[in-house]
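Reminder: ligand-aware prediction takes two inputs, not one.
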Amino acid sequence: MIIHENYSLKKLNTFGIDASARYFAELSSVEVIQEILSEQTFINTSKLILGGGSNLLFTKNVDGIVLKNNLKGIEVIKEDADFYFIKAGAGEVWHNLVMHCIANNYAGLENLSLIPGNVGASPMQNIGAYGVEIKDSFYELEALHIVDKTIHSFANVDCKFGYRESVFKRELKNQYIIVSVTYKLLKRPVFNTNYGAIQKELEAMGVRELSIQAISKAVCNIRSSKLPNPAEIGNAGSFFKNPEVVREKFELLKHQFPAIIGYDLDNGDVKLAAGWLIEQCGWKGKTFGDAGVHKLQALVLVNYGNATGNEIYDLSQKIMDSVKDKFDVQLEREVNIS
Ligand code: EPU
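Here is what comes back for the chain with EPU:
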């Protein structure tokens, strides 16, 4: 067990914010986690579990211990006539897992190609893109309880998945460290190409016969064309969630703003494209020092170099206020603020 003090987190968050941790340790095995959690010094110290750091904005230094989840491993733990059950360590890089599945013809994760972050975050915030969410392929996870230090299993229903939500972001927040996640992946793929941009890209690629490989490539192409690569420009993907409004509210907005973009939800409500709302308020492509709103996707806030977490946070607040003023719609941050 190696504990670092006053450790820089700049390279460990995709926004590239220059924050530091009072204490820092890497979690390379369950035993290491149990050892650290048993240390007298850390029992009452606040703990921040870090995965890929791709959905996180540091607005101050961390006055506690940052535990970087580095638990690795990908294995097929069982299979039946229809499914492979793939178990991955929470510290595996998400896209590496997707590539591994695609190379082995395990179907279900292809639409989620190139999402930044690690395996542990996939159930935490029910990652989603291009018509698919992780809850569709999630089987179970193992998580270590921070206080009793034993491993608990959570099935799909226990995670209470919602749009970019799970029990681990709400009632069980900061109580567990996710150790591994098992996905239930199809032997015979069911292709999901409902999302218009995928169909267009597959056509542009000249794909005649659908495959999970082709869908993954199409998704990678789309993402690379409009989302900034965190390795080049600091960002955390969509900064806000797409807000949901009741139908009457949507009809009123549609009357006033005929071009507004909304998607029907099963419960009758409508999900609005926050990127469109933000763009209409004039924010797209704007920069304030090194903080800015991406020029191709207004939902993505960026750090062009040395922006502070507070500068990004203040910008997000101004955006929320202006969307509220213009549309009477309250945006909610998707990114965790620390
Ligand atoms: N739009 C604009 N202006 C913009 C951005 C978007 O008018 O600046 C319009 C687009 O033209 C499109 C609509 O808004 O008609 C939706 O845009 P897009 O397809 O880019 O998707 P999104 O709703 O902005 C969501 C997810 C993304 C995910 C994509 C694709 C959220 C918060 N974001 O974005 O997820 O990749 O759909 O499925 O749900 C993430 O969570 O970090 C993330 C990147």
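The chain has nine helices and 20 strands. Residues 129-130, 237-238, 241-242, 261, 273, 275-276, 279, 284, 297-299, 334 surround EPU (CB under 6 Å). We will return to this case in the review session.
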